[in-house]
Design a protein that fits this description.
There is one protein chain. By secondary structure, the chain is an alpha+beta fold. It contains 16 helices and 53 strands.
Length: 883
């Protein structure tokens, strides 16, 4: 009997083994989705591509071929194609298979901060023996054969830009990569029948007869890949990617506006995934882009509703909170939308807005009233009426951010705005005010015209994601580890050329969401006619023009301005007031950024009528500052670094007729005691040098020039121009220095100390100046008349003229100063500004409203120039500049 049972047991085991063996063989022979089964299970994402020739033709048809082929994933396709072309076979069947058949590119992070791809090519024409023959007969490359689990693998060196590759053919597919481990992983998965294809959450998009690109994302692996590039402090941003869903696959279809997206996302109900946090039954129409600001970088909008059936997905946990039942449910109308505006810099909390749709008769103000506080830390009193909208502040109940969980914000005691159909929460009072400005000016997403994207239409999607990728530039820059920032940002900028992106997730059945959307090619968008990027109201009237400074790390640009109460405001790149500080008296001259400690970290330097300040980016004074001036200052502060050693020198003119000089530490400059006759101080000190000679120039109100060494000794005798000068001298390379008076008369100072006067080139000058407009070596004479701006070379050669459409009556002009911006002349007439570039062109969509002097900069470090100035007596405005 025992032998019989032993025999039966052995038979069952043997039969089982044989069954599995033959099942595996049959499964492999069937070639069922072999290319998908070869994708290593740690892939972050992969693109499954059919009919490469036709895809390229379609991209060319719509004019997107250059933009598309610059994307890294297609660059990898072209790179592997180049390697296959090295395999010299007649009619090269490998290339034929790639161009007309099916293949995929799988992306992996093989070590921190480094990505590599695996090509999986389904073979129809090329065969394994052909590859073996090539490896043994080719002289254009070298190869080494080895065995991996009985399969032959070749490591190939081409000796050129293609470098070293690993290739193998198995089960009718070619695997190739720069990284041998990826080829081996794919090979072993095919042999062991273990792959992403066997993952229960993976949903394959059905193949079609037309050319396609299917893009698949594995969110957990994508999160791990993001963390490999992320700065340690940014892990909080990359980790939630894994919680969004399991898999998402979309089919990319090219059209005249960009790329259409259609596919599926999968969610394992046993796992805690973001899409499972909400109930998605009973589709309703809602408008996720309505009344949201058009400077939105990222928008996530969801329908929050209670579970109607046991068969439906679980509701958001916040819906069952007692606080929600008491303070939100009576007025809440199901839609919750999170908005992140840009720029964010390293502090994104202040730029987060949470929109909660309110019922028509919900009365949210009355319901939330028990949570209101009377004041904030800045002593603002609430409720506050701002341009017809009520703003309040809530206490620290602690449940606000749970309404739509995300890694970007924690709302402990948010400000709250009651406006139109929404209740809006934010951590920043200024951001709510800026939103009201945009809402009143109809600068909202639903009013934004983007070809190919109907921003005013409704959706029945359960969850909606919208992003304008270039506006996420700051978030990317501040999230990526410095080690990989340059390469990662370069890849990101290629993707950002295709923007905006809209995705809708519609609940289909348990574990599956239908995905649809569009990514717009920027070149197909209508030209921007935006009036402004942001505008910020000061507490009272402005007393100075704005100045641009950089943060401690030298990356983020910020704006400083003073009001008539001598309060100094620091404003970040989103228009948010970061801090206020009273400095007791009016500013004198410009605000500068210096590297005081010589460690590539920057501080702010400025002067008032009675003090010289050096402060950090938070507005705190450095030790030994401020310096108290002996008399009231009447000129702006001059700051020089003559030796390039960051041993700065400071100079300022006072009402007693003296120009005072100081060393970097604030001590009086040794030997410096110039006194231009004790009267008529006109302009700040200027510094010039030529070869081994240097001098500091002082100009009096009646046009007398005094030239000194840094130790206070006269370099030349004083020179008389016999005119009123309002602008400093400008260096003429290898010749001398030149300036002019407002009527256009020129004064040239040679290196020999002689002063030569030349008559004005044109009559009727309202203003004139010399500036390096069209050349860095030779300054131009720029003349403003009531009807035009004329520009001449230093030798009187005519360069260009810009004619105004109507006569000017009260005009002035200035050379645009700033950081990372091309030279430009700003003409101001009756609160209108005219930016004119080096070609004599007026910037697009100008003139625009503005007062006094504007400053320019690449505010967001994205190559886009921005003008910053006063819109009116109390409002700072930023205008985009397009030429």
């Amino acid at each position: 009997m025992k032998k019989k049972y032993i025999f039966l047991t052995g038979f069952v085991v043997a039969a089982t083994i044989v069954a599995f063996y033959f099942y595996d063989i049959i499964y492999l022979i069937s070639r069922k989705d072999m290319r998908l089964r070869a994708v290593p299970i740690h892939t972050a994402f992969f693109a499954d591509i059919q009919n490469w020739d036709e895809i390229q033709k379609s991209a060319m048809q719509y004019g997107f071929d250059r933009a598309a082929m610059q994307l890294n994933i297609f660059q990898k396709v072209l790179e592997t194609e180049g390697v296959l072309k090295q395999l010299q076979l007649k009619d090269n069947p490998f290339i034929t298979d790639m161009h007309q058949g099916k293949f995929l590119i799988s992306y992996h992070v093989t070590k921190p901060g480094y990505t590599e791809s695996l090509l999986v090519l389904e073979l129809k024409n090329a065969k394994s023996p052909a590859l073996k023959e090539l490896m043994s007969t080719q002289a254009t490359f070298t190869s080494e054969a080895r065995k991996v689990r009985g399969e032959e693998v070749w490591d190939v060196s081409f000796g050129n830009t293609y470098g070293r590759w690993t290739l193998t053919i198995t089960h009718g597919v070619l695997l190739m990569s720069h990284d041998p481990s990826l080829v081996e992983d794919g090979l072993l998965q095919l042999k062991d029948n273990v792959s992403i294809y066997t993952d229960g959450t993976f949903r394959q998009i059905p193949d079609t007869q037309i050319p396609y690109v299917h893009l698949y994302y594995h969110f957990s692996n994508l999160s791990s890949a993001a963390q490999a590039f992320a700065d340690k402090s940014a892990f909080i941003l990359s980790q939630p990617i894994s919680r969004f869903a399991d898999w998402m696959g979309v089919n990319l279809s090219i059209n005249q506006n960009g790329i259409g997206l259609n596919g599926q996302a999968t969610v394992n109900d046993k796992e805690l995934r973001f899409l499972n946090d909400f109930a998605f039954n009973n589709k309703v129409k809602f408008y996720p882009l309505a009344q949201k600001p058009e400077n939105t970088a990222l928008l996530m909008s969801a329908i929050l509703r209670r579970r109607d059936s046991k068969d439906m997905l679980k509701s958001s946990p916040v819906l069952s909170l007692p606080e929600f039942q008491t303070y939100v449910l009576p007025w809440f109308d199901e839609e919750a939308t999170f908005v992140l505006t840009e720029p964010v810099g390293s502090n994104y909390d202040a730029h987060s807005l949470l929109f909660l749709k309110s019922k028509t008769s919900g009365r949210p103000y009355e319901t939330l009233k028990p949570l209101f506080v009377n004041t904030d830390e800045a002593n603002n009193r609430f409720p506050l009426n701002y341009k017809g909208n009520i703003i309040c502040k809530l206490n620290t109940a602690g449940w606000y951010g749970m309404l739509l969980p995300n890694p970007f914000t924690e709302m402990l005691s948010p400000y709250i705005l009651f406006t139109n159909d929404y209740v809006v929460l934010a951590n920043s009072l200024t951001q709510l005010k800026l939103y009201v400005e945009r809402l009143n000016d109809k600068k909202t997403l639903d009013k934004t015209i983007i070809p190919g994207m109907n921003t005013s239409s409704f959706t029945t999607g359960s969850f909606v994601v919208y992003t304008n990728l270039p506006l996420l530039n700051d978030l990317v820059e501040n999230s990526v580890s410095k080690e990989f920032a340059a390469s990662f940002s370069n890849e990101y900028n290629q993707i950002a050329k295709w923007s905006p992106l809209l995705l809708e997730y519609n609940y289909e059945d348990a574990g599956t969401f239908k995905v649809s959307g569009v990514i717009v090619n920027k070149t197909s968008q209508a030209p921007s006619e935006s009036n402004y990027l942001w505008k910020t109201e000061l507490d009272t009237l402005a007393a100075s023009p704005p100045y641009v400074v950089i943060d401690k790390q030298g990356k983020e640009k910020r704006v400083l301005v003073q009001d008539v109460n001598n309060k100094l405001y620091m404003i970040n790149r989103a228009g948010d007031i970061v801090w206020r500080r009273n400095i007791n008296s009016p500013l004198k001259g410009e605000i500068r950024t210096i590297d005081f400690y010589k460690n590539n970290e920057y501080q702010i330097m400025l002067a008032t009528e009675d003090k010289i300040y050096v402060m950090d980016e938070s507005g705190n004074d450095l030790p030994n500052f401020p310096i108290t001036l002996p008399f009231k200052a009447v000129t702006g502060l001059s700051v020089f670094d003559p030796d390039g050693s960051r041993n700065y020198l400071y100079f300022i003119g006072c009402e007693n007729g003296y120009y005072y000089g100081y060393e970097k530490s604030g001590r009086p400059l040794s030997g410096w005691n110039p006194n231009p006759n004790g009267k008529n101080i006109a302009m700040p000190v200027s510094y010039y040098h030529f070869k081994n000679k240097e001098f500091f120039m002082l100009i009096t109100g009646n046009g007398i020039l005094k030239l000194y060494s840094r130790y206070g000794k006269e370099v030349y005798k004083e020179l008389k121009t016999n005119t009123v000068l309002t602008r400093p001298f400008v260096s003429v390379n290898n010749k001398g220095f030149v300036t002019c008076n407002p009527s256009g008369e020129t004064f040239f100072l040679g290196y020999d100390g002689k002063l030569i006067k030349t008559n004005a080139l044109i009559p009727d000058c309202l203003d004139a100046m010399y500036a390096n407009l069209t050349s860095l070596d030779v300054p131009d004479l720029i003349c403003l008349t009531p009807k035009d701006v004329s520009v001449y070379r230093y030798d009187s050669t005519f360069i260009f003229r810009y004619n105004f459409k109507s006569m000017l009556s009260d005009a002035s002009m200035s050379m645009l100063n700033g950081i990372d911006i091309q030279p430009c002349v700003i003409v101001n007439d009756h609160d209108m500004i005219f930016p004119i570039n080096t070609k004599g062109e007026l910037a697009k969509h100008f003139p625009k409203k503005g007062m006094n002097v504007f400053v320019g900069t690449d505010l967001y470090n994205n190559g886009a120039e921005v003008l910053i100035g006063l819109l009116d007596e109390s409002t700072i405005v930023t205008y985009p500049v397009e030429w």
